[in-house]
Each structure stands twice: as structure tokens, then as C-alpha cells.
Design goal:
mainly alpha
């Protein structure tokens, strides 16, 4: 049972981090000083992340909050990360018109 809990921990950590990023972006919309901190040092502004996530956050170099959000999404939202290996994925089927 313990092995199962450990196996799901990284996913839980990423989910928590995404929540922290969401809250940080929301706060930054209303707090100009925090927005500046988030843009200049995201690793310091976003709390509750693993050392690896902290290093990834520090790589974000954004000029505004929209840019920050896009870069964070690419790093931490599943399926949008550059380090995700898509080679095993099946081809995505395109929708077809119904009744044609």
C-alpha cells in the first residue's frame, strides 16, 4: 500500500503546484509588487514545490503575467510539457461530420 502512495506523489505534487501557480497569478493581478516578484523570481514567489519544480520555475523568464502563465502551463500542465515523450501515443483521430 505504501508503494502506491509513493507512486502517485509526483502527480499530487504537480497538482498542488498548479494550484499554487493559479493562486499566485490571481494575486499578481491585484498586487503589483507581488507581480514584479513573480516575474523576477518565480521560484521565490511560488511556494510548495519540489526542488526540481523550483529549478523549473526559476527558468521562466517572462515579460508579463500572460507570458508567465503560458510558460508555466507548458512546464507543469500534463501533455503540454516539452519533456513529455509522445512517441508511444496513438495517432489522434480527427472528428468527422455527422450525416455526410
Amino acid at each position: 500500500m505504501h508503494a502506491l502512495a509513493v507512486a502517485h506523489q509526483p502527480e499530487a505534487n504537480e497538482r498542488e503546484l498548479r494550484g499554487q501557480i493559479d493562486r499566485s497569478l490571481s494575486r499578481a493581478l491585484f498586487d503589483a509588487e507581488f507581480a514584479q516578484q513573480l516575474l523576477s523570481d518565480p521560484g521565490r514567489a511560488v511556494h510548495g514545490c519540489t526542488p526540481r519544480q523550483h529549478r523549473q520555475l526559476r527558468k521562466i523568464r517572462a515579460h508579463d503575467l500572460v507570458d508567465f502563465a503560458q510558460q508555466a502551463q507548458a512546464l507543469f500542465w500534463l501533455g503540454l510539457r516539452e519533456d513529455y515523450d509522445y512517441s508511444d501515443e496513438e495517432e489522434v483521430l480527427q472528428p468527422t461530420a455527422v450525416g455526410s
